[in-house]
């Protein structure tokens, strides 16, 4: 039986923006992960209300501050094994890893509405703001929208495109459909890029 694993640690920490926190929810199969995400956000809203403060999951609540994202970490599992986990995967001898990434990237422009559903979502995509502005992939590079992390059974693809205001069920569905279509149709990803992707030339841009 095949399944999708969403690989996230479970912790919270302060990040760059004023009052901004990163909230990581323990990994699970994809539908359960979506449920955990929504329950966690609802609990935080109710807790904030009960203590007389407010919390927002807007993608860009303040133009002068970094936006808030919903980074998706995906790996593909079959029979208890991460099928991305090939020691040569980053060299692209692992077909499923390569094609899943290729499909996810190829279908990004047409499915951006699932990652960025409203006007405020697009205010987040600003060069130099830690939000991606061009479609590319790289190894452990926070300026790329598709970031490859981990090794062995923890090897995963992180997509940094979705904002904190996305409907996570739709965002996960878009990611999964794109990746599986990549495997089905053997879609090759472009070459990886190094360095600051904000300064890269001739790339497809985020809407």
TrEMBL record:
This is GS catalytic domain-containing protein. InterPro entries: Gln_synth/guanido_kin_cat_dom, Gln_synth_cat_dom. Residues 1-207 form the GS catalytic domain. Belongs to the glutamine synthetase family. It comes from Sphagnum jensenii. It comes from the Eukaryota. Keywords: Ligase.
């Amino acid at each position: 039986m095949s399944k999708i694993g969403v690989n996230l640690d479970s912790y919270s920490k302060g990040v760059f923006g004023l009052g901004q926190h990163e909230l990581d929810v323990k990994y699970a199969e994809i539908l359960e992960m979506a449920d955990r995400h929504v329950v966690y956000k609802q609990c935080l809203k109710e807790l904030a209300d009960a203590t007389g403060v407010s919390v927002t999951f807007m993608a860009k609540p303040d133009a002068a501050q970094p936006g808030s994202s919903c980074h998706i970490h995906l790996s593909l599992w079959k029979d208890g094994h991460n099928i991305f986990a090939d020691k040569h995967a980053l060299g692209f001898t692992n077909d499923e890893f390569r094609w899943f990434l290729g499909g996810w990237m190829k279908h990004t422009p047409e499915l951006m509405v699932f990652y960025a559903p409203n006007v405020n979502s697009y205010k987040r995509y600003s060069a130099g703001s830690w939000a991606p502005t061009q479609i590319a992939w790289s190894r452990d590079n926070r300026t790329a929208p598709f970031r490859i992390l981990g090794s062995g059974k923890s090897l995963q693809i992180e997509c940094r495109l979705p904002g904190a205001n996305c409907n996570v069920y739709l965002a996960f569905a878009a990611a999964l459909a794109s990746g599986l279509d990549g495997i089905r149709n053997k879609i090759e990803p472009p070459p990886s890029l190094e360095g600051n992707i904000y300064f890269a030339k001739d790339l497809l841009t985020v809407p």
